[in-house]
Amino acid sequence: MVEFLSTSRDDFEARFTALLSAKREESPDVDTAVAGIIADVRARGDAALVDLTNRFDRVSICASDLRVTEAEIDAEIAKVTAQDRAALELAADRIGAYHARQLPEDANWQEATGARLGWRWTPVGAAGLYVPGGLASYPSSVLMNAVPAKVAGVERLAVTVPMPDGIANPLVLLACRIAGVDEVYRIGGAQAIAALAYGTQTIAPVDKVTGPGNAFVAAAKRRVFGRVGIDMIAGPSEILVISDGTADPEWIAIDLLSQAEHDESAQSLLVTTDPAHGQAVAEAVERRLQTLSRRAIATASWRDFGAVITVRDLDEAVALSDRIAPEHLELCVDGAEALAERIRHAGAIFIGAWTPEAIGDYIGGPNHVLPTARSARFSSGLSVLDFVKRTTLAQMTPEALRAIGPAAETLAIAESLEAHGLSVRARLDRLNEGE
Amino acid sequence: MVEFLSTSRDDFEARFTALLSAKREESPDVDTAVAGIIADVRARGDAALVDLTNRFDRVSICASDLRVTEAEIDAEIAKVTAQDRAALELAADRIGAYHARQLPEDANWQEATGARLGWRWTPVGAAGLYVPGGLASYPSSVLMNAVPAKVAGVERLAVTVPMPDGIANPLVLLACRIAGVDEVYRIGGAQAIAALAYGTQTIAPVDKVTGPGNAFVAAAKRRVFGRVGIDMIAGPSEILVISDGTADPEWIAIDLLSQAEHDESAQSLLVTTDPAHGQAVAEAVERRLQTLSRRAIATASWRDFGAVITVRDLDEAVALSDRIAPEHLELCVDGAEALAERIRHAGAIFIGAWTPEAIGDYIGGPNHVLPTARSARFSSGLSVLDFVKRTTLAQMTPEALRAIGPAAETLAIAESLEAHGLSVRARLDRLNEGE
């Protein structure tokens, strides 16, 4: 049975804190193994990739097989139905339209001193996208990573996707094609991250690596951070539904299960002002669990990490939500739009009962790569900003330097950085000579 | 003697590649020690901070001394001269004005389907700023980290600054006061990062940690990344000057030394179209090195990592600059503004010979926390964006769901995520019932 909490009970704070700090994911200590894999790929390049891929993915490839050829991609995507293709294309269009609005603007202005200041945004040159293999190999994730990169203007986009037992996912390859991915490699794990970051004979290094993965992939991303940019270390998925009881309990039950079915470590929470509604949702979840195809996963997630939390009013709901800082937040209440304004920490908000979270996973337009594990307190979902960077610009005039140079010299001297001060002083002296 | 390279010589590519890949910083393997320190602070809190601080900083404090009191700050900043204070205040004003323009805008729009989409930016709740102690304890760095946080709307800003032998830096404390820092703690090293990330009895945890530090601090930031946000792992400073020989060689020599004096691992490079000018700059550097107060540091940096590179034309200069992706780029050429437009990868550009890089370190307005070690290929200097995060918004209507819901259901089924599909289907069925 799922856990029931109520802010009216004395044990609430202790139980809520326990819920928040529940360790949902075992992080096996794979760091030593990952360090070895990265060193191997740096030392031996393609040969290491081939050895590791043959071992982990139970295949027998050579270096010339590392890259998936266009002919192979053509053959795989021919298997995709017209309906699936149309859905992927609609998703790509809508994600593209949403993200196009995120392109940041350059700035350039002149001050009263005559100085010009500003900044300019430019795309990252090359990005590498990690796509998991097997069960969690999702075409939607390809779009969510690749489309923002292309919108940003990234010139080269390389995808790595392991193909265990040699089996490709046609939809993943179609998503690569639709999104304009330039290169696809049949590798995975820490070795794929190492290849993207450092390059091999076959794979040119990239500047930025994004995409979800298992503990090996996460550890490898943490290690190559600095050599390349990375997006985030993603944890298991989460949803928080705030409900005032006005929406159908069946809808909310399914929405909770749409996170729970992802992963045994996923977390689905309901916060409601209506205890009877909370009970009805919990009962609906139990019924749905009987028939759900992924019921083993969803049952474990709901049992171990799910909860129904009763609150006195929506003010309490907002406060709890900000403490949870959920990846996904559904507001199934009257006046959902106004309530959304009051939320401070959330990856994505789904406003009103007609907006199931799954819309955001596929087709709404916003990105589905979102901060997990309370990291919405300090980070954002993937966006075009992850694939651009800013160069700041400053242009002094003699007059501007005369106005602000002396203060720079003062601070340089105060910091005992003599040459810093001299670099300003030499120019100020020239100005004084000219007078 | 400094190294001279020329793109006209056969050995250029080999020597340039060696220059680019020179390992400028020893990274001692402190990770095991840092893991132990973090575990100790998590387990023992203030007691661990007190023990570690007393040991490393040669002091004898207790837990109630960890926070620097307002009275202590008052007493220290009373020592600052009026000239230094005025310079710091001008710098804070100018940095604030520049960064205020970086505040990102919310967006919200309605589609033809009736769906509303958008996003909203909110500030991080609490930020922790690491300030090094001793020689590299710079008030300008306090401003460069704290001012953007305050502009972003961060409500609580905590600074940690070690005070070896109990000695405070009055200018650092004044910079904290001017920038509106809320709390100052006399701790440093990995233990300070651990305290900011996890909290202790005295120090409430923060959401984001920024600021430069030594290898211990860098390793600790890498470890707490995910628990909190971090800015970047900063490496030694760099400058690239592109010169066509029109600027005074003395000015360029001093500008090169203003990076070299930071650190023996700093790198100062000149790329010039004029070999005689390159020679003149190198000679001016040698002369200046005779008298510079930090000549030991600057000489080592210039000798080990400096270079004068002669190119055939400015096209070559631009191409080399983008391969270097310098932290600081000075353009001392005729038509510097037009040349700046052609640069793709640089942390900050200083346009024209009247703009010494030191202006940017203190008072220009742009941030001086900038990507080093070629990371301008994929990352940006510190900004207001580091202290805000974005929540995406989606609000469907029944009509919008009718338009795009079926494609979401199709993709959910294709990904074998049944509940995802059902969450859309349940609503579509309701719509169909209503017809």
UniProtKB/TrEMBL annotation, chains A, B:
<feature type="binding site">
    <location>
        <position position="214"/>
    </location>
    <ligand>
        <name>NAD(+)</name>
    </ligand>
</feature>
<dbReference type="GO" id="GO:0000105">
    <property type="term" value="P:L-histidine biosynthetic process"/>
</dbReference>
<feature type="binding site">
    <location>
        <position position="259"/>
    </location>
    <ligand>
        <name>substrate</name>
    </ligand>
</feature>
<feature type="binding site">
    <location>
        <position position="420"/>
    </location>
    <ligand>
        <name>Zn(2+)</name>
    </ligand>
</feature>
<feature type="binding site">
    <location>
        <position position="259"/>
    </location>
    <ligand>
        <name>Zn(2+)</name>
    </ligand>
</feature>
<feature type="binding site">
    <location>
        <position position="361"/>
    </location>
    <ligand>
        <name>Zn(2+)</name>
    </ligand>
</feature>
<keyword id="KW-0368">Histidine biosynthesis</keyword>
<dbReference type="InterPro" id="IPR016161">
    <property type="entry name" value="Ald_DH/histidinol_DH"/>
</dbReference>
<dbReference type="GO" id="GO:0005829">
    <property type="term" value="C:cytosol"/>
</dbReference>
<comment type="similarity">
    <text>Belongs to the histidinol dehydrogenase family.</text>
</comment>
<feature type="binding site">
    <location>
        <position position="328"/>
    </location>
    <ligand>
        <name>substrate</name>
    </ligand>
</feature>
<dbReference type="GO" id="GO:0051287">
    <property type="term" value="F:NAD binding"/>
</dbReference>
<comment type="function">
    <text>Catalyzes the sequential NAD-dependent oxidations of L-histidinol to L-histidinaldehyde and then to L-histidine.</text>
</comment>
<feature type="active site" description="Proton acceptor">
    <location>
        <position position="328"/>
    </location>
</feature>
<keyword id="KW-0520">NAD</keyword>
<keyword id="KW-0560">Oxidoreductase</keyword>
<feature type="binding site">
    <location>
        <position position="420"/>
    </location>
    <ligand>
        <name>substrate</name>
    </ligand>
</feature>
<feature type="binding site">
    <location>
        <position position="262"/>
    </location>
    <ligand>
        <name>Zn(2+)</name>
    </ligand>
</feature>
<dbReference type="GO" id="GO:0008270">
    <property type="term" value="F:zinc ion binding"/>
</dbReference>
<dbReference type="InterPro" id="IPR022695">
    <property type="entry name" value="Histidinol_DH_monofunct"/>
</dbReference>
<dbReference type="Pfam" id="PF00815">
    <property type="entry name" value="Histidinol_dh"/>
</dbReference>
<feature type="binding site">
    <location>
        <position position="191"/>
    </location>
    <ligand>
        <name>NAD(+)</name>
    </ligand>
</feature>
<dbReference type="InterPro" id="IPR012131">
    <property type="entry name" value="Hstdl_DH"/>
</dbReference>
<keyword id="KW-0479">Metal-binding</keyword>
<feature type="binding site">
    <location>
        <position position="415"/>
    </location>
    <ligand>
        <name>substrate</name>
    </ligand>
</feature>
<feature type="active site" description="Proton acceptor">
    <location>
        <position position="327"/>
    </location>
</feature>
<keyword id="KW-0028">Amino-acid biosynthesis</keyword>
<feature type="binding site">
    <location>
        <position position="262"/>
    </location>
    <ligand>
        <name>substrate</name>
    </ligand>
</feature>
<protein>
    <recommendedName>
        <fullName>Histidinol dehydrogenase</fullName>
        <ecNumber>1.1.1.23</ecNumber>
    </recommendedName>
</protein>
<dbReference type="GO" id="GO:0004399">
    <property type="term" value="F:histidinol dehydrogenase activity"/>
</dbReference>
<comment type="pathway">
    <text>Amino-acid biosynthesis; L-histidine biosynthesis; L-histidine from 5-phospho-alpha-D-ribose 1-diphosphate: step 9/9.</text>
</comment>
<feature type="binding site">
    <location>
        <position position="237"/>
    </location>
    <ligand>
        <name>substrate</name>
    </ligand>
</feature>
<feature type="binding site">
    <location>
        <position position="361"/>
    </location>
    <ligand>
        <name>substrate</name>
    </ligand>
</feature>
<feature type="binding site">
    <location>
        <position position="130"/>
    </location>
    <ligand>
        <name>NAD(+)</name>
    </ligand>
</feature>
<keyword id="KW-0862">Zinc</keyword>
